[in-house]
Amino acid sequence: MPNVRPQPAHAPAHPLRWGEPFPEAAHETLANGQMRRNLAHATRTIRDKRLRVTAELPDWEALRDAGAAIKHQVMSELPALLVELERNVTARGGHVHWARDAEEANRIVTDLVRAKGADEVVKVKSMATQEIGLNEHLEAEGITATETDLAELIVQLAGDMPSHVLVPAIHRNREEIREIFAGRMADAPAGLTGEPRELAMAARAHLRAKFLTAKVAISGANLAVAETGTVAVFESEGNGRMCLTLPETLVTVMGIEKLVPTFRDVEVFAQLLPRSSTGERMNPYTTLWTGVTPGDGPQEFHLVLLDNGRTKALADEVGRQALHCIRCSACMNVCPVYEHTGGHAYGSVYPGPIGAILTPQLLGTGTKGSLPHHDATASLPFASSLCGACYEACPVKIDIPTALVHLRGRMVEAEQRRPLPTGWATAMRSAAAVMTSGSRFAVAARAAGLGRVAARGERIGRLPGPLAGWTSVRDVPAPPRQSFRQWWSQHESEER
Amino acid sequence: MRIALFATCIAETMFPQAPVATVRLLERLGHEVLFPPGQACCGQMHTNTGYLDQAVPVVRNHVAAFAPVLDGEWDAIVAPSGSCVGSVRHQQAMVADRVGDRGLARDAAAVAEHTYELSELLVDVLGLTDVGAHFPHRVTYHPTCHSLRMVHVGDRPLRLLRAVDGIDLVDLPEAESCCGFGGTFALKNAETSAAMVGEKVRNVISTGAEVLTAGDYSCLMNMGGRLSRHGTGVTVAHLAEILASTREAPWEPAFLPRSAQAVKP
Amino acid sequence: MEAREAILARVHDALARSQQGPAPEVVRAYRASSDVAPGSPEALELLTDRLVDYRARVHTADEAGLPQVLAGLLAAAGSVVVPPGLPWTGLLESLDVEVLGDTPPLGNTELDRAGAVVTAARVAIAETGTIVLDGQPDQGRRALSLVPDHHVCVLRRDQVVATVPEAVAVLGRHPERPQTWIAGPSATSDIELVRVEGVHGPRTLDVVILG
């Protein structure tokens, strides 16, 4: 496969923190023209679909409000709801496990797979298991995990990291996918073309036997209902149904925040999620199951409740709303930064606007001690122009711009715990001194006008230092000859 | 009406033509404009860069400069910037609350209630869409993100522009996508910002407009800088400049477009 | 129970630091139902439109016409799986198709070899083009409507409601039953956002509306 190299090129060190700080990582991804074309096409398509189907519902805003309020309620009653969920899953024959972190969750899952004597598992696409690096852990333990979602399969075969929450292979086009299948899928048909239908059918054939014979399946969960113990997975291809229905044992890994209190709440999220996510009125398949049903589906069910930093996020009064996220990915489809840089620039399995507020919180970046230099996740809250498109698109109204600004404050505070001030800190301090007084500001504004002697004509070309990035592609207008205040005093005296 | 002008720090220093045009326009419409001299900045730059503590005294200065509106000194405050009005409405109280200064938060919120972005003042408060302007140029309008999503100016600027005599107003493709400015974002993530403004400018050029307008000079500086560097012949003007322009006192561009020929590769 | 107690303690501690008073009450101002009555011609029309939009095939029949419709749909199937409580098993046995009962349960490979499956449903949602199965004897266990490549679902018209909340109200009477919500045949848009119907689930979905 000469043309298909893993993206990113280096194997990630940690699923939530794998690369360079955002500006450096974006430098790499911005140079990948193919990826940018793939992304621009994909995000535009899905964005338009979402707008069409959300406009169709007269009560879309009321649904968003209800979704936001339910999530808020879940967070404030989380201890009781978790215990209620555990009780109801157990009462229906399921087993509930608790995992403080990735390592504990991986160990629990590995032990469960081993106990069934299996060395192979099939997997439903799941962000929670991405986040804990479960596949890599299982592999190290001699267990083969096969991703069964088409995009996840592409990512797994290519040795990539996902670059989107919903469409993890969004950075690849059909020709690249054809090469990946032809080169890495042992039973790929000869003469495979890049036609999406042909590629999908190759995946169907490849996975069919695995589905019919797998003993253990691993999934995530889109939501779980505390009052009934019901768990739900929303999907499109039927690979989810295969995993959730055919094997004898099912292990579901779920973040502790994915709860809803009542069964009735399903009516809200079953409307918000598909329309925000794939831009469909309803995703092709949704499975809901409650513990174990004799004679139908897996007869052994394990639910692993995962913290892995969620309680750190919950402790932050502004940032905790990141836990309201239902992983629809609408924010990345509307984000102009994401559209240009792609998901890999975020260096986390959670890319885009939600990733920029979730990743640093799960890791507790900047919460204590001073910030290490070049901390990749500390750069994430700054990876936004604060345009607000994400907030507008979010089905549960997470105020991502406000959370970004709040987390920027946290990063700056942590940075200031270092012994030496940064250039930014010094600049901001002197700017504050000027901007806290009209008279000092007037002096500064006049001085800016004097600076125009350095400029040729009405604009300034390339500049060194911190403005180099700006002036490499743009001119800067020369400061005006007369500041506004100078004009105003003249104007005022003319009026009199 | 007696209207206090919040000129905004960036316009005061770099783009006085926007507050000047705001003054001329409102005076032409028969209103009295005042300039509270204690003003400097709303605090947005510090807030959005993460220096929230340093933003507190900046906010305090702003609130003190405009507090007389609470005593009925002026009928309203106007700013030729959606972004700064957005910060006044949505950030100042938050910044004060964060350090536990409830009094400042309350005052900031009260001042914010009297603060309007220019198109809001004209359409909602003064009840105007036709302000008697004359602007015989082909123009395209970029709704800046904060005007659109923080202040929700909606189609007010477009209604005002459509009523301008002689204007040839053309739609901007993908108008609602960000131009890539984002304050210090353009410096901290310069390459990403450059990619964003590149795409925005391609859309602007595709309209064949001579003038690109918006309600924020910060975004116009970004897009205008790129347009100028590439010698596109498109220049920028604030919405206030277009609305202030008349047959008798026509618009004088602050920036002459750098012609394509003048640029050496 | 060590991890359990530790996580619950962390949650309590986090809330003590971040909770700003009680959460606002959940206001459900969204539509609990619509002007379109269950089973009305408008509901059927809407359901049909939505299902067809997602490449399902929709047919209508009365009791007398059902055999002919099913005969047409299953003409090329060869064999058809039936759940244990399907009301139309007798009818299917009169057709030119091998009928496979699921008692005792068929193996996965046997299911995979079957040409089609016929099931009933619990409820259908017109606005979203969704049918919902809840595993009762007329629908069978979940694997039946999953593994055979052709799913024929027979709905009674009074099962068609307009909105998601109306369907959830029906399903909420027995939330513990395993549910499968189906909106069109299996599909993926993972390659360049091009929709391809039929990946792992049945590639053909026929919905017959009865009555």
Automatic annotation (TrEMBL), chain B:
Residues 3-87, 139-223 form the Cysteine-rich domain. One of its GO terms (cellular component) is cytosol. GO terms for molecular function: oxidoreductase activity. Coiled coil: none annotated. Pfam families: CCG. This is L-lactate dehydrogenase complex protein LldE.
Automatic annotation (TrEMBL), chain C:
It comes from the Bacteria. Pfam families: LUD_dom. Residues 111-210 form the LUD domain. This is L-lactate dehydrogenase complex protein LldG. It comes from Georgenia muralis.
